[in-house]
Amino acid sequence: MLDTLASLEFEPFILSFKLALVVTVILFIISLPLSWCLSQSRSKFKPFFEALTALPIVLPPSVLGFYILIALAKDSPIGIFFKETFGISLVFNFTGLVIASCFYSLPFMVQPLQNGFEKLNKGMLEASYVAGKGKLATLFKIALPNIKPSLITGLIITFAHTVGEFGVVLMIGGSRPGETKVASIAIYEMTEAMHYNTAHIYSAIMVIISFLVLLSVYIFNGRFNRAWESK
Amino acid sequence: MIQIAISKKLNGADGDMMLTLDTTIQRGDFIALNGKSGSGKTTLLRILAGLEETQGSIEVEGVTWLDKKINLPPQKRGIGFVFQDYALFDNMNVEQNLLYVNNDRALADKLLNLTDLGGLKDRSTQKLSGGQKQRVALCRAMMNSPKLLLMDEPLSALDPSMRARLQDEILLLHKEFGTTTIMVSHEPSEIYKLASKVIVLENGKLLKEGTPKDVLLKRSGSQKFSFEGEIIDMIQADIISVAIISIGQQLVEVVLSAHEKEKFKIGDRVNVSTKAFGVNIAKGGGR
After folding, report:
1. pLDDT tier at A1, thresholds 50, 70, 90
2. Who among B75, B85, B124 is closest to A134 (CB)?
3. pLDDT tens digit string along B104-140?
4. Measured between CA atoms, how close is B187 to chain A, in angstroms?
5. CB contacts, 8 Å: B127 with chain A
6. Which of A1, B132, B152, B243 is most open to solvent, judged by the fewest CB atoms within 10 Å of its CB?
7. Which residues contact B128 (CB under 8 A, 6 or more apart)?
8. Is the pLDDT reported for residue B187 higher than 60?
9. Nearest chain A CA: its distance from B202 CA (Å)
10. What are phi and psi of B269, to 5 degrees?
11. SS3 for A101-165, per residue?
């Protein structure tokens, strides 16, 4: 057991968290305008976009992974374009993982933010417009600070969900050590190779980290709501 | 001078109706907007603020806010708006709420001191009482020195003594700044105290327009002593019937004749008046 611990590689974990961090940052930047527009929209096309962004929740990760693989593969128009223009490949490397994970985790960022924006007192936004402030100032100075619990939920759930990803990663990244071999893939491989000790330790670490992440979300939101109510 | 000529289709409780208004407001006027709920008062305020689209024209002191080609967004209209639920910015303290509108510390101090809020500058808005929130909302609306101040039932959520106090403060601010003001109000005493002109809407149409005295005191018939109320109960006591009528904050009993008893039911709006020393009650009660 001690031998196993000493020879344990932490690279897959570091890779998992690096991927989650990058994806969370990118998704926050993408989801902020998207969720804001969805929350303010009264267009009849709104359900269409809502369904589209929620699709990754219900689709099997392999389906999503399959289409992303087809779209980004070396001989696809997008793949050829990136290869010729930037000299980079988009599959079976870290870049590919980031792109695929962004699709996969999109609803986990968009939905909490959209929910928060929709629950916001509309009068607050209108008071800001009447005071002469534009949509951008209103979004950053009024809307965003007033949906803090939703914002924190979105960030942490997106991060945790990306850490826990398996199917999409396997389809797009394969298992290249240091490049695409994240923790969930490493556990799969250990099990397949019947290295149960290592698989045990990896899995236990995942359970503990995931639980701590969720616990912090609930503690934070509980405290925040209590502080909010007692104010 | 403000010239308003607008019409908008509304989905009211009793089906669609048209909100149409054609009126002129003088600079410095204090207008009370009155009428039953659903008559289009709030929509009218929102149209003036640019928060709701409509057809027609609005011109304020020579500047066109709305016509066939122009529709000035709320940001460009330079108005103050006091929302019914205050809509304070919860992420900011009292002073920050004011400074967000206009970073003029001197004006913020002046307004906060005028409304007795000087000591609450750093207080979070969520720790304020209803009356205090109301005053912050009022101060915030005055921060951009508005050409037009719009207030949507600003005092409706407050108890009578707080109401009276805030009426004084609204009056004080109006005297100090001379801002043209339109305020939605249901309270005749409030209208009488504050307004220089009353506009009464019914089903989206102008029903009456004039000084509070003309609009509020003149009644049909020759009664001098007349109150509006609602029948909340009808009791059969021995051989006579008694209606319990709620008038303002008070309940009164009125004896009904057999004929009157047939005419009324619980929930009717009525006018209670005296005529030749007898109590007279009549249906209606609409102004």
Report:
1. low
2. B75
3. 999 999 999 988 899 999 999 999 998 899 999 999 9
4. 24
5. 231
6. A1
7. B94, B120, B136
8. yes
9. 25
10. -85, 130
11. HHHHHHHHHHHHHHHHHHHCCHHHHHHHHHCCCCHHHHHHHHHHHHHHHHHHHHHHHHHHHHHCC
